[in-house]
């Protein structure tokens, strides 16, 4: 089975721009979560989608948004980029049953200049 | 409150056992996880333990859970240079993972 796939691997954007990151979950997984990893704040939860509905949201500003498609693929969008948005963005998928573990992709490294 | 703590560094000799410790605060967490992160990579799921278990063993990995003290540990037997990485413990609570700061494990020959 293929793992969680995230594209692109690297992105460089300038302040004020917006960016869209993509995540394809493991086949059959219906839940997709997004996490931000920075040296200062560590790993922080952004949001979780299940069957195209946002089920949970972390403490991030409204500039961070996401969506999930009917095939469970997910995208996250960051608008009006700030320097502090530079981070590794990790996507994780799980089957969605109560006890299923999260499997992560290799992440998208976003650099904002 | 939600808080997961780990020591920042651990250095061991190749062939020895490594023990990485973690404490968490939320007793309602259902699962506790260990992930490994190598440079430039994402998080690799190593193992996880349900909160009503005390111990789980998987090849070279042993997880111990002391629910009373909210203490979790990961023991790696016969540590190899390929085990050098950052190890994160995480508690699963209300459909999200809360991660510790990560422990950087360095294995020297």
List its salient traits.
heterodimer; A: mainly beta; 53% strand; B: 109 residues; mainly beta; six-stranded mixed β-sheet; 11 strands; globular
Q: Describe the main β-sheet of chain A briefly.
A: 7 strands, mixed
**Overall pLDDT level of chain A:** 95
Q: Outline of chain A, from the CA principal axes?
A: globular
Q: So how many helices of chain B?
A: 0
Helix content of chain B: under 10%
- Tell me how many strands of chain B there are: 11
Report the radius of gyration of chain A as a whole number of Å: 13 Å
Uncertain stretches of chain A: none
User: What's the average pLDDT of chain B?
Assistant: 92
Low-confidence stretches of chain B: none
* Helix coverage percent of chain A: under 10%
Q: Gap between N and C termini of chain B, in Å?
A: 41 Å
What oligomeric state is this? heterodimer
Total strands of chain A: 11
Query: β content of chain A, as a range?
Result: over 45%
What Rg of chain B, in angstroms, do the CA atoms define?
13 Å
Number of helices of chain A: 0
Question: Please, could you describe this protein's structure?
Answer:
The complex is a heterodimer of chains A (113) and B (109). Helix content of chain A is 0%, strand content 53%. Chain A has 113 residues and is mainly β. In chain A, strands 2, 4, 5, 6, 9, 10 and 11 form a seven-stranded mixed beta sheet that branches. Chain A is globular. Chain B has 109 residues and is mostly beta strands. In chain B, 0% of the residues lie in helices and 60% in strands. Chain B contains no helices and eleven strands. In chain B, the strands form two sheets. In chain B, strands 2, 4, 5, 9, 10 and 11 form a six-stranded mixed beta sheet that branches. A five-stranded antiparallel beta sheet of chain B has the order 1-3-8-7-6, with no helix packed on it. The mean pLDDT of chain B is 92. Classes of the chains: A mainly beta (113), B mainly beta (109). The interface between A and B is medium-sized, with 21 and 23 residues.
